[in-house]
Amino acid sequence: MERVTITIDDDLLKQIDGMVDGSNVKSRSHAVDLLLRSAVSQASVKKAVILAAGKKERLWSEKHSKIKPLVEVDGKTVIEIILAKLVDAGVKQVVIVVGYHGEQIVGLIKDGKDYGLSVEYLWDENSGGSAGALLLCKSKINESFVLSYSDVYYPELEVSDLVKFHRENSKNGVCTLALVNVKTPNVFGVAKLTGSMIVSFTEKPRAVESQSNLVNAGIAICEPAVFHYISKVPSSFEKELLPILAEKEKLYGYIYSGKWIDVELAP
């Protein structure tokens, strides 16, 4: 173990000293160690799902044959950037749902060891929609997990902050969706918030119907209970599942104000 020096407020230090009982908590440093471990644990998840089963028509553009997860930003593919964010948040295991040209993703990421992860692939052979693709992961997930699209770029989002927010604010929710403010919300999934709860979610509303500029940023924290709300396949995560969760008061929103790019709309 490494020795470090920290400065602690007097009132907080008194609370820490009050934890010391000589048995379960042997000393002040032991109390601080326990508190830090607990805080880190609360702000991390170990598993993640990445949805990367795009159809043929979901290529980056007519001029490029690349599938969107393999578009490069600053010398790295979008999916590699997402994996790095997950590692930073403490994720250890990732399930990637692949479809059209999925072999390209498998060839790049392989088993994930080069990225500090254990990566498993599931194939969405019959295009079950984004919710159907998520449902394929049900047998692999029994705890809180990160859910990310594979074609969004959110370099300044701290996944551990999103996890912490989910655990502190979502009460009985099963999903906390990262939201970003955009000028043209009608081309995305639009969320209406009351406090931290998303009270309605509409995928690509007409401009006149949009009541918010907060849209789905493509990353969320979910509980395993989310699978219970997927009642049919094929089905859409955005058009069917998220509106149901909002209606049942199970969906919450975390506002992300950093840089964000939807690869589909990138030049």
Q: What's the rounded overall pLDDT mean?
A: 87
Major β-sheet profile: 7 strands, mixed
Q: What's the total number of strands?
A: 15
Which strand order does the major sheet show?
A: 7-6-1-8-13-10-14
Bin the helical content.
25-40%
How does the overall form come out from the CA principal axes?
globular
- Class based on secondary structure composition and strand pairing: alpha/beta
The DSSP helix count reads 7
Strand content: 25-35%
Radius of gyration: 20 Å
Low-confidence parts: 56-60
- Rounded to the nearest angstrom, the distance between the terminal CA atoms is 49 Å
Order of helices and strands: HHEEEEEHEHEHEEHEEEEHEE
What's this, in brief?
This protein is an alpha/beta fold and 267 residues long. It contains seven helices and 15 strands. The strands form five sheets. Strands 7-6-1-8-13-10-14 form a seven-stranded mixed β-sheet, sandwiched between helices. The protein has a two-stranded antiparallel sheet with strand order 2-3.
Structure explained in plain terms:
The protein has helices at residues 10-19, 28-42, 78-88, 102-109, 129-135, 159-169, 237-247; strands at residues 47-52, 59-61, 64-67, 72-73, 76-77, 93-98, 118-123, 145-149, 152-153, 175-181, 189-194, 197-203, 214-222, 251-256, 261-262. It is an alpha/beta fold and 267 residues long. It has a 7-stranded mixed β-sheet, sandwiched between helices. It has a two-stranded antiparallel ribbon with strand order 2-3. Helix 5 (129-135) packs across helix 7 (237-247). The radius of gyration is 20 Å and the shape is globular. The termini are far apart. Mean pLDDT is 87; it is low at 56-60.
